[in-house]
């Protein structure tokens, strides 16, 4: 297996890879309606792609307010720390931009993953696209 690396993506140039990953994970696997998956925030977000060689296998985005979201890894690459690498890239980029606090809405089943990265639950459970979520934050 090639080494997995994460890079900042170009929304316009990398949109096909970002769409392929998010549609496989959120729309196909988790049944999120496409109209909820794609929003106006994509145009202003910093996007990240995790790649094995030249093949994109995961993605995430960082909004200008420090909100990290759309963290997704293709099924065959889960359990290989791809999500960790994406999150570290997003956190690092947020801090580089002076965003000392990062937030995210986590699917409840993934909270332990985010807690390992320093996030703490700051809300009660709620439904988003029919999936139980909680809000989480890290930093000051």
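Sequence proposed for the structure above (140 residues):
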């Amino acid at each position: 297996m090639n080494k997995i690396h994460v890079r900042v993506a170009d929304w316009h140039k990398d949109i096909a890879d970002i769409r392929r990953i998010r549609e496989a994970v959120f729309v196909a696997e988790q049944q999120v309606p496409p109209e909820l998956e794609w929003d106006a925030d994509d145009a202003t977000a910093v996007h990240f792609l995790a790649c094995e060689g030249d093949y994109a296998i995961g993605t995430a985005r960082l909004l200008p307010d420090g909100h990290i979201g759309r963290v997704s890894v293709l099924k065959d690459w889960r359990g290989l720390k791809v999500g960790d690498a994406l999150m570290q890239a997003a956190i690092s980029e947020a801090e580089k931009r002076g965003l000392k606090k990062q937030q995210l809405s986590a699917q409840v089943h993934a909270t332990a993953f985010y807690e390992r990265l320093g996030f703490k639950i700051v809300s009660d459970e709620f439904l988003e696209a029919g999936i139980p979520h909680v809000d989480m934050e890290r930093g000051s």
